[in-house]
Amino acid sequence: MKYFTTTSKASRRSVDCVIVGVYNRGKLGAGATDVDAASKGQLLKLIKSGDVSSQAGACTVLPGVAGVKADRVAVVGLGKSGAVSASTFRKATAAAIRSLADTKTRSILNTLTLESVKGCDAYYLARHSVESIGDALYRFEQMKSGRKKPPMPLSMIGHSIAKRGDAAKTTRGADHGDAIANGVAVAKDLGNLPSNVCTPSYLARAAKKMASGNGKLTTQILNEAEMKRLGMGSLLSVTAGAIEPAKMIVMKYKGGGKDQPVVLVGKGVTFDTGGISLKPGAGMDEMKFDMCGAASVIGTMAAIARMKLPVNLTVVVPAVVNMPAGDATNPGDIVKSMSGQTIEVLNTDAEGRLILCDALTYSRRFKPAAIIDVATLTGACVVALGHHRCAIYSNNDALRDEVFAAGNSAEDLGWPMPLGEQYNAQLKSNFADMANIGGPGGGSVTAACFLERFTDGMNWAHLDIAGVAWKSGAQKGATGRPVSLLSEFVLSRAGALP
Description:
498 residues, alpha/beta, nine-stranded mixed sheet, six-stranded mixed sheet, 15 helices
């Protein structure tokens, strides 16, 4: 994809489509004002007649507008004037692209970057623009047979700027947005693949392939024998009933000299039956998405490596399949983690924390400046926060606030959640150092408390993404979250934000 900036008027740019915004009560955005003047009031007439809607997210594509050089004008609704959020901006941009999906549009000019959007400067407007366009263009058709509909051949995206001084920020925002959109697509592809394709071995090969040809990026794969020698009894208890062998994937990007790395740990359960604590059959197909934590940290690595940031980033993915079998772990079994702590497995469907705790202990060797684990960990998180925000836990208030701020800036939202002795008490076991579940109350919190027991001395945060990692129903599919949040966090750590 090629990007450009321009101070030219919307009506004067020879592109396949120009995107303009309109507000309630007939107020026109900057680009729309110019288009209306060039067309001698045609746009306002269409708004007054109801043929063009100003409702946030609505889009009307007008071909051959008089006085406008572009072949089409995509008019998107922005809702109430003065109340445009980053979310509205992204939805409006995506709506325009979706409305053009069946056309042969190769070049667009997005004039929405001239609008006043809360909390966004030229950098974030361009970045949100490119990320939302990438999301709108994404298709997963790798597993379908037969002739596929060709995608929209979009190859050039322009952003309107009010003054030439905004060009550098806009260009950087577009470049970063392009890398993040690519990382999101990587995460979506991995998440959407079925579990008979996307196995732990497949994830390992994908990580190896990503490192090929990139001198700053290396990938190491640990097999089960190596994990056993390291004492990862907790992780190996999850994979005991599976035929497909577990893998520990370690990716290292070295762009920051001798700086301590940021470490991202992603839960990689490529399919979760629940083990002996078998899940209900309804909706079990969606348990292929239980590796979306792994997909998101690999996607983030793809984004950071593409941006060539001056930072050290390490990604650790414990990848397993959780299956019931004659040699599977039973409820009531006691396993020993790499840390030496023992765990009574009261429920084999609380398996994510059992692989993450050993991955966290293993990650100590990297002496992380900060370590963040990402996991589709609990249904309780969905009850607490729905499908809008991920849960943020941390043993360090400053790190928690940093992650929260990154989510707000990236429009990939999270929410701070509590830890504490009261919740930790729910993990008490009569037979081991701890149980792997803490009862029905506060399930997302007790899961985080479990992981916290393996993070002494580390600046640690945990993201429970169970509610945001994928969508169900007619729009079923991986979302690629929280690649944007994690990329923003690393960009900030690298000092690469304008």
